[in-house]
Design a protein that fits this description.
By secondary structure, the protein is mostly beta strands. It has no helices and 16 strands.
Amino acid sequence: MATTADFRNGMTIEFKNDLYKIVYFQHVKPGKGPAFVRTKLKSLSTGKTLENTFSSGVKVQEVRIERHPYQFLYKDDMGYHFMHQKTYEQITLQEHVVDNNDLLKDGQEVEMLFRAENNLVLSCDLPPFVELKVTYTEPGFKGDTASTSANKPATLETGAEIKVPLFVNIDDVLKIDTRTREYSERVK
């Protein structure tokens, strides 16, 4: 058992008959009344986030998780197929388990989170940044906008659509932030 004093970002806890990852937490000690912990939790089964306030010192059940490196092989009607990089064991995951699955490219390395007690896959995390090629975007012309931070839609090689600056062209390779799904930079 852990208490609210043990909270840290990324910690996995059992709460309301589900597994949640702590995305954000803040200890608050108001001038009047007892201290409390304000949290933002992400459900590992549904992906939904919720905000909850815990009284200071409340005990919660911490879940032990393990991280393993996997490689994305392909997607078919059964789901997403991955291979462990050391044991070559293959597993198949459903679409809702893989965050930002439209940014996955064949051969992409990912990190899987497993519950240690029963070896259950909790989530599949992409690396923070991926490099993808632009397959389609409208040409951007100088003077198209009065704003200096104008964006246009672009389709990437995986089929994902994101907003990119006007100077990006077809066949450019872009560095994409998988956490925010935003353009980061153009790769030379």
